[in-house]
Design brief:
heterodimer; A: about 400 residues; alpha/beta; Rossmann fold; 2 domains; globular; B: about 325 residues; mainly beta; four-stranded antiparallel beta sheet; 1 helix; 28 strands; about 5% helix; about 50% strand
Chain lengths: ~400, ~325
């Protein structure tokens, strides 16, 4: 083969490539960060389908949102891409984030416990990028540890316990026995509920510590009967981040009193049994993707992508700074399939949203509950309103 | 002879200019209301509004339309995955057409030989041959398609996707999407001006109506709604219909429990009228003197005098009423 014929062939191939590729569509890239090993998704744990625990890893939620974006991508001549990235710890994830950010990725979903989220957010402050926390409910991430580029789509503990407190007030179940576990995360839940009880006028008649143990020396802390005797109460609130104790509490109390908090009736971002505002179709898409029913982090991952896509669409893919101000502004309408238009709180970047109060197979109520009013937006009766915020980004 | 052909032409002209309704002869005057939770269509007397009959249908009946000759009422039975055909003379279901999982709303081709139905669960529009009673084509669209409207010439089909926030324009000759138009959030249903130059689409979460220029497939305007005493969050437009002269549009506002009367030319809201809870479905009588609004969460239907925009009365219908069709 002569050089010129080789050249001609190469040119021809090049021309074919040029014409067969769609006119260089811009790609909006997302990265989904997760740990190699995350105990929250341990199969031994998710096997029991504890009400306040995720049913599985929320990556599936992000995938559903990507698929839903294909037609708007076509209309805007854009492409959306999602990359799944794993790391052993915060340092490993940070290295990946730096690499991807340098390669043009601007939107990162973080599926990791609060300590990892905080570390990533602190280390990336000032970079041209956004982090979306999709699975850490810890209040501190929205308060002292907040960062200007850290957004939260999962409701925090205070939103959950405020929703529960509103529900208890609406039922006139005003006196509560609080059972709190030994883990640091249990104390956070317990403290959040105590703050909500105070805010909405519930009475915590007693607060007792439980342990997961059959040790006779710790009987008074391990036995449901011994833990739920004494002063009368309307309802038992159990603060159990692990879930095993809470799972065994309903129907084992001294008095016939409902159990709420980490079991019985829980306050969640999403529940597969929610059936209004197009919810069954969304749950069905998630079920097909994940091969299990969806839970709150799936929804949180899904809506993080939906929020970015919405901003891209409405600003006609504006430059990053403008797009971020649209995402965080009041004008955005994010559709969470919960009936309200959602948006991020300006003071701490938390997605304001209704909370579903649910049992194992039914949504009993949606908070904010009728009658709990706010001067601007009733959803701000849940969690940290501007005046409660300790976020100084 | 000349007179005759002239009147025929007139009739044809009127027929062609009707964007949605396809009624030919004068009907029984009866009002049909589908009830999602009763698995039935309630039939009301057109004068007394008393219940004449309750016709059992498949599960979760939703959208309904009369066939071109006015003899049959087609009813979507979403959970039974079929369309039931009610014989108007006998007031009973005479046949059912299987269409697949979760059909929601539909539109006929101008000759009523085919209908196009949005399949909420599967993100597609199914094309159904009425005589053969089967799905002959499927068109992939954005998630949760809902509103479906045919252009009067039968060439273009408009479909909303509630999740993709867009209107798809489909060429019915090829069943291919020819345009994707991004509109407001959670777009639901359609109306069109008599010349089909403007397509109006309700945005439930956006709280507005987007007006599309049908020749350019571009957005040319928006109508927003702000009934007194409601926050923007509570204004959720869903149902829409337009008078035949294209002067007035009626838009139901869902959670705001009102409908809006809109001047089409100036795109301004002339009035807000209080009806029942979660007002969605809206239908005009043939003489356009009455407007029927079905209230999904108060299980009733408001009957409105369109001259005064006053509710004449509210009549109880089945549980979770979806659509009213008037056989007049």
């Amino acid at each position: 083969m002569t050089l010129s014929s080789l050249l001609r062939q190469t040119l021809a191939i090049f021309a074919i490539l040029l014409f067969s590729l769609p006119a260089a569509a811009e790609t909006i890239r997302f990265a989904f960060l997760e740990l190699d090993k995350d105990v929250r998704y341990d199969e031994k744990r998710s096997f029991h389908r504890n009400l306040s625990q995720p049913f599985g890893q929320p990556f599936a939620g992000a995938e559903v949102a990507m698929r839903e974006s294909r037609f708007v991508g076509q209309a805007l001549k854009l492409e959306f891409a999602l990359e799944r990235v794993k790391g052993a710890d915060a340092a490993a994830l940070l290295a990946q984030v730096n690499r991807l950010q340098a390669a043009g990725v601007r939107y990162f979903l973080v599926d990791a416990p609060a300590e990892v989220v905080a570390e990533l957010a602190k280390a990336t402050r000032g970079k041209e990028m956004l982090l979306f926390n999709v699975s850490a409910a810890d209040d501190v991430l929205r308060q002292e540890q907040c960062q200007p580029h850290l957004f939260h789509t999962l409701p925090n503990h205070a939103m959950q316990t405020d929703a529960m407190a509103q529900y208890l007030v609406s039922r006139k179940w005003r006196s509560v026995l609080l059972l709190e576990g030994p883990l640091a995360a249990d104390k956070l839940l317990g403290a959040a509920f105590e703050a909500s009880a105070k805010r909405f006028g519930l009475k915590v008649v007693d607060k007792r510590s439980f342990v997961l143990s059959n040790d006779p020396r710790q009987r008074d802390q391990g036995n449901a009967l011994l833990l739920t005797g004494g002063a009368d109460h309307d309802v038992v609130f159990v603060a159990d981040s692990d879930g095993e104790f809470a799972r065994n509490l309903p129907y084992r109390t001294v008095r016939p009193r409902p159990v709420v908090g980490s079991e019985g009736l829980v306050a969640e971002a999403w529940h597969w049994a929610w059936e209004r505002h197009g919810a069954p179709q969304l749950s069905s898409r998630m079920q097909k993707q994940a091969e299990r029913q969806p839970s709150s982090p799936d929804w949180a991952a899904w809506i993080a992508i939906k929020a970015v896509v919405e901003a891209v669409v409405r600003t006609d893919n504006a430059p990053f700074a403008k797009l971020v101000s649209y995402i965080s502004g009041d004008e955005i309408t994010i559709d969470g399939f919960k009936g309200n238009r959602l948006g991020f709180r300006a003071w701490d970047r938390q997605l304001r949203q209704p909370i579903l109060l649910a049992t194992h197979n039914a949504v009993i109520e949606r908070a904010p509950i009728q009658g709990f009013l706010h001067q601007q937006n009733n959803m701000d009766t849940l969690g940290f309103d501007q005046r409660d915020s300790r976020c100084k980004p | 002879m000349r007179l005759k052909s002239l009147s025929a032409a007139l009739v044809a002209g009127v027929l062609l200019s009707l964007p949605m309704s396809n009624v030919l002869a004068k009907g029984t005057g009866q009002i049909f209301v589908s009830s999602e939770n009763d698995n039935a269509v309630t039939v009301l007397d057109g004068k007394t509004y008393a219940v004449v009959k309750t016709i059992p249908t498949g599960e979760r009946p939703r959208d309904m339309k009369l066939s071109a000759n006015g003899e049959k009422l087609f009813v979507i039975a979403s959970n039974s995955e079929r369309v039931d055909v009610i014989d108007i003379a006998k007031l009973e279901v005479e046949r059912s057409i299987e269409v697949g999982e979760d059909p929601e709303m539909f539109a006929f081709s101008p000759d009523s030989k085919r209908f196009y139905v949005s399949m909420e669960e599967d993100a597609k529009v199914s094309v159904v041959d009425v005589a053969a009673g089967k799905v002959v084509a499927e068109i992939e669209v954005g998630e949760e398609p809902e509103g479906v409207m045919m252009s009067p010439d039968g060439k273009r089909l408009y479909v909303t996707s509630e999740v993709a926030n867009m209107v798809h324009v489909i060429d019915t000759a090829t069943n291919k999407i020819t345009a994707n138009i991004v509109v407001g959030n959670r777009p639901r249903r359609f109306a069109a001006t008599p010349d089909s130059s403007e397509i109006w689409v309700t945005n439930e979460l956006g709280g507005s109506v987007t007006i599309i220029d049908a020749t350019k497939n571009e957005i040319k305007g928006t109508v927003s709604f702000a009934p007194k005493g409601f926050r923007a969050d509570d204004v959720t437009p869903v149902g829409i219909t337009m008078t035949r002269d294209g002067k007035t549009a009626y838009v139901t506002l869902g959670r705001a429990n009102h409908f809006a009367v809109v001047d089409v030319a100036s795109r301004t809201v002339k009035d807000y009228v209080l009806v029942g809870q979660r007002a969605w479905g809206v239908t005009l009588s043939r003489d356009e003197s009455r407007l029927f609004v079905v209230n999904g969460l108060s299980d009733d239907m408001s009957i409105v005098d369109t001259k005064t925009n006053k509710v004449l009365r509210s009549v109880p219908v089945g549980r979770v009423p979806h659509t009213a069709v008037i056989d007049d």
